[in-house]
Amino acid sequence: MIKAGIIGSAGYTAGELIRILVNHPQVAIDFVYSTSSAGKPVHAIHQDLVGETDILFSDKIHQDVDVVFLCLGHGNSKKFLEDNSFSKNTKIIDLSTDFRNKEEKHSFVYGLPELNRKNIEKANFIANPGCFATAINLALLPLAYAGLLKEDVHVNAVTGATGAGTSFSATTHFAWRDNNFSAYKAFEHQHLSEIGQSVQQLQEGFDHKINFIPNRGNFSRGIHCTAYTFFEGVLEDANGMYKRFYATAPFTHIVEEELHLKQVVNTNKCLIRLQKFDDKILITSVIDNLLKGASGQAVQNMNLMFGLEESLGLKLKANYF
């Protein structure tokens, strides 16, 4: 059994991660670290886990675990690893932004399996992708692989309230979020750098703009992304190209029908639909921001790192009604 430790245990991604791992046939959770909640049952914070596990929060870190998941706020993972050490055999999967930038000198592999599966299989340290970045990368990478991103890309994506985490702010209160919709960080969202890196990895020399408008929706979870760009080919060819690119990806599927979030919420899937309008291709992608956009993908990466079936423990059903 793989012994797993979880750091930063009170947030949404930690709750989802625990929910997956307590049902994973090859994992035993060794500790869930929290100094403020030590001794309390995990289900005192993550109340959906009542009856699922009797694990208690701990203020002790075991250095010899097989894998550690860092579910810390952005900027805190680096500091935590500077202050704490693990055995040379411990694999680390970080769910923050801290190690996603290739320009910084570190040994973390960018953990998008559809892009870096072979490197992930050999890696000891994984930088788990951001939620918007996952949805947008999966929408664009087949075009980049074919060298067909020839002009600017325009992206509009909407995320649910859980994308902001559990910390309170003016835009996370129910009274503000309910019956509301807003854009934020237009053209400067922090996930743009990792999206650009991924595109350039497959289409070297790509120097066009990715114009990204992120939006807040008045629902709890999920990301609905639409992207369009110049495309000369026909729709049939584009569908074939995308299906070939994702032929070995167990969670990314190309569909022809209109997409909506209830198809993917509570699953690790990404669904993609292509449409052609004159000289433009429109790509729609939908994911659950907490699963394929965070904790589910982290477990997918863990499976690859330990030589397990990629989808093990992740055959989750959509909450359709």
UniProtKB/TrEMBL annotation:
The pathway is:
Amino-acid biosynthesis; L-arginine biosynthesis; N(2)-acetyl-L-ornithine from L-glutamate: step 3/4
Question: Where are the catalytic residues?
Answer: C131
Main location (coarse class): cytoplasm
**InterPro entries noted in UniProt:** AGPR, AGPR_AS, AGPR_dimerisation_dom, AGPR_type-1, NAD(P)-bd_dom_sf, Semialdehyde_DH_NAD-bd
Reaction catalysed by this chain? N-acetyl-L-glutamate 5-semialdehyde + phosphate + NADP(+) = N-acetyl-L-glutamyl 5-phosphate + NADPH + H(+)
The protein's GO terms of the molecular function aspect are: N-acetyl-gamma-glutamyl-phosphate reductase activity
Q: Which SUPFAM superfamilies match?
A: Glyceraldehyde-3-phosphate dehydrogenase-like, C-terminal domain, NAD(P)-binding Rossmann-fold domains
Keywords, A to Z? Amino-acid biosynthesis, Arginine biosynthesis, Cytoplasm, NADP, Oxidoreductase
- The record places domain Semialdehyde dehydrogenase NAD-binding at 3-123
Subcellular location per the Swiss-Prot or TrEMBL entry? Cytoplasm
> Which protein, by its recorded name, is this?
N-acetyl-gamma-glutamyl-phosphate reductase
Species for this entry: Salinimicrobium tongyeongense
